[in-house]
Amino acid sequence: MKLRIVLIGFGFILLLSGGRGGSPRRAPVYSPNEVLKYQMYYGIINAGEILMTLEPANYNGRPVLHATATGYTTGLADRLFRISNIYESYMDPETGLPVKAIRNISEGNYRFYNEVLYDRDSNVVISQLSGVHEVPPGIMDMVSVIYKLRDTINFTTLRSGDVLEMDTYFSDKIYPVKIRYRGTETIRTRKGRFHALKFSPVSEPGRVFKSEDDITVWLSNDRNFVPLRISLNMLVGSVRADLIETNGLKFDLIEAR
Fold first, then answer.
1. Domain for residue 173, yes or no?
2. Does some domain include residue 257?
3. Which positions ≥6 away from 174 have C-beta within 8 Å?
4. CATH for 193
5. Which pLDDT value is given to residue 231?
6. Is the pLDDT of residue 21 over 90?
7. In this structure, which long-range contacts are made by residues 86-92, counting pairs with CB atoms below 8 Å and at least 24 apart in sequence?
8. Model confidence over 137-159: pLDDT tens digits?
9. Strand partners for 114
């Protein structure tokens, strides 16, 4: 089960912050001690969990926010093919942009580890594995962009069917990403019934997906903009992640009546 694709999916739909990346901002909508927990399903099987945490930290003598997304298998899936993937981002609390990102992958016998530093003055990233790469201004990693979107989201001019584009840095490459906004929807999860904002990142048909619209993500339509669910229809089956626990949210998560 491709658990890491679900983590990537979280990043793909959270790339709507556009060109506002470098400007100072007001206090963010998320709490610096926030915890989000998701149940993973492969078809009808409980296959794993995703834990997202945020906490204050210090990096090279400067205050940062340390965001971590950990995906791991449980139960039968863990016995068949153990996965434990950790993605970390150290973010500037003033801009929300990453200063450092870590990718730590463990899938069966496969291991991968890399650290990437972000030099905003020179618009380059320094990869521990591949060296220096020029990047566009405001580029983000797959974890920090989740929090950036939640803090800059604005739907006053966005209409269903609009497509937004942005570059992100992942696996030592610049990834141009297109995301289609699909309007609002009410969904029910184990956490409750919620009004949600619906997105479809444009996926590439072929090795993993059947069509361009095989990834769908729902964000809470309240002041938190928390990811409530992500659904992936893949050639090898369907995967879903549902929000099941929260702690430390700045605002109440509002259920639909």
1. yes
2. no
3. 133, 135, 136, 139, 167, 168
4. 2.40.360
5. 86
6. no
7. 87/7, 87/141, 87/142, 87/143, 88/143, 89/141, 89/143, 89/144, 90/57, 90/59, 90/64, 90/65, 90/66, 91/64, 91/65, 91/66, 91/67, 91/144, 91/147, 92/62, 92/64
8. 989 898 988 888 788 767 677 78
9. 103
Q: Angle at the Cα of 80 (from 71 to 35), degrees rounded to 5?
A: 15
Residue 253 lies in a domain: no
Residue 137 structural domain: 3-247
Amino acid at 104: N
Stretch (H or E) spanning 115: strand 110-119
pLDDT of the residue at 56: 96
CA distances from 242 to 24, 42, 99, 146, 148 (A): 32, 12, 29, 16, 21
Around 232, how many Cα atoms within 13 Å sit in the side-chain half-sphere? Answer: 27
Mean predicted lDDT score pLDDT of the chain: 83
How many domains in the chain?
1
Sign of CA dihedral 166, 156, 53, 6: negative
State both tokens at 68: 């971590």
8 A C-beta contact, residue 58 and residue 66: no
End-to-end Cα spacing for the chain: 35
What is the pTM (predicted TM-score) of this model? 0.84
